[in-house]
Amino acid sequence: MKKLINDPQEVVDESVAGFGLAHADLVSINSDPLFVTRKERPAKPKVGLVSGGGSGHEPLHAGFVGLGMLDAAVPGPVFTSPTPDAIIPATQAADSGAGVVHIVKNYTGDVLNFETAAEMAAAEGIEIRTVLVNDDVAVEDSLYTAGRRGVAGTVLVEKIAGAAAERGDDLDAVAAVGQRVNDNVRTMGVALSACTVPHAGVPSFELADDEIEIGIGIHGEPGRHKIAMEPADGITDRLLEPILAELKLAAGDKVLLFVNGMGGTPLSELYIVYRHAVQVVEATGATVERNLVGNYITALEMQGCSISVLKLDAEMIELWDAPVNTPALRWGV
Amino acid sequence: MKKLINDPQEVVDESVAGFGLAHADLVSINSDPLFVTRKERPAKPKVGLVSGGGSGHEPLHAGFVGLGMLDAAVPGPVFTSPTPDAIIPATQAADSGAGVVHIVKNYTGDVLNFETAAEMAAAEGIEIRTVLVNDDVAVEDSLYTAGRRGVAGTVLVEKIAGAAAERGDDLDAVAAVGQRVNDNVRTMGVALSACTVPHAGVPSFELADDEIEIGIGIHGEPGRHKIAMEPADGITDRLLEPILAELKLAAGDKVLLFVNGMGGTPLSELYIVYRHAVQVVEATGATVERNLVGNYITALEMQGCSISVLKLDAEMIELWDAPVNTPALRWGV
Fold first, then answer.
1. Range(s) of the domain holding residue B33
2. Catalytic-role residue among B23, B61, B102, B219
3. Phi, psi of A67, rounded to the nearest 5 degrees
4. Contact with chain B for residue A326, Cβ under 8 A
5. CB of B193 within 8 Å of any CB in chain A?
6. Model's pTM, two decimal places?
7. pLDDT in tens, B285-333
8. Is the domain of A249 the same as that of A272?
9. Does A257 share its domain with A231?
10. Contact residues for B279 (Cβ-Cβ < 8 A; gap 6+)
């Protein structure tokens, strides 16, 4: 295992510390328990947004803390859910009197721990709503989940619900628009290589030299099937097929197309995938109105990508375009 | 070789086409010869900035085309210089009557081709200045260069000179501040893994399972020496030692610290390097006033990073902070 790390047990703490130093203008770090909050408290009460989950998916979630997106993020150990003792104070920190929305990827540990934290926070008088993200069309149940996994759609939920909170929507409205994003986004991923969890020291799974895995999860958990390597356009077709089968796009529909890198794939390759994905999506009659291409929810150094398609409505477009000022996503400010 | 590509000969054209689709609000693509320009022409004459070089280093250079940075970028084949027949029309497109600055990384092919293009453009009445970037402290000469290589410092030259052009500085002033950035920035890189040029199909060099290469170039060309894998803090010390030996920082100095990923290294590891690099730099008495952490000048899917330290003056800080609106770097707008 070759990684730019020190003690494998210190990876998350040291990485978040460096992140905090690099973005001290935007975020504050609470080191024990570990969570990340926005530097500036809101001038008047607004709905707080909190997300979190296992580390190893950077920039998700801490990279999305800031104006127009999250108020707090809770990084767990690598690929392991954070515990309620960190989620509760992060929720308290994010609360400014208008309630808090938890954005939770559908993994069993995350669901349980956020549920417990929500109960405890509610007992202390903070109103909580939860948006459960489950956009992965690859498999119904996996090693980590009951039901569909939450993957790249999470970034879109966080951006759009975050903008709703920032403009002053109330708790139910923020949760509702986050839920609407989840209901309208579908994602599917592919791995060209495995990834290695630092404290494990060996790759999470095996792929032969000419083999790729279609439908992979963001922890390297199994997808739909392994196939022989093929050209990018063919892989793009395979990823989009189940997404488009569910979304049933038609002429006049507007979508956001998101090609997300898994961490070890060059940006140039993501643009090759994006190019063909636009052709395939627009062949349905829909138009790609907005896009995002880059490494936003990763699986350590895994090579591969995911494609997400979000069916947009006018309000989602307005909220997508709204200003955002976070370490990993920034425009309009 | 597993890559998200189609025909290896079409990698650059298809990637730039996808890039153009994704960022149609910011850039325009000229496909034959291949170059990228800003979507909006300046309202009044301003100094034009043009850079370019072999592809495989994305987002450099095309990702930095836009307000406050480059006016045009010329992507060559992977790791191969673009030719004058592309550089000349890119220079013409970037010219709005106030002259053009070429920002050229010090590789033999780039130097020759930009020189030829500058002569031809000058013959057509466009005033040209050239800033040659040679910030790599690893080796004096390499496979690709006479003298030091131009690496991550290029991003800082493009940002700061671009801001000077945007505020209306004249041709000599823009070239001068670009030159001053180059004179005050030093960079050193490390590779944990090799990279594979698509049309070659095999890795550019070999590293054993427990071996890393200190002083690597952005094409995988040899560095100073191969050593056994060691913790991130030790690697960070090794990268900073020759940089700090040259910059001779003292109490009161202000620097920009740039930790750049080579393409295949997770962001979380770059923050681990950044964390310790701040400690080492600030032990000189200098303070880290600005920073950049991420994948900005890459070597395909290589794992590793480079560290750059730029000694700042007040004007450089002002120009660094100025608005920028490009696909890969965006703030203040």
1. 8-184
2. B219
3. -50, 130
4. no
5. yes
6. 0.98
7. 999 999 999 999 999 999 999 999 999 999 999 999 999 999 999 999 8
8. yes
9. yes
10. none
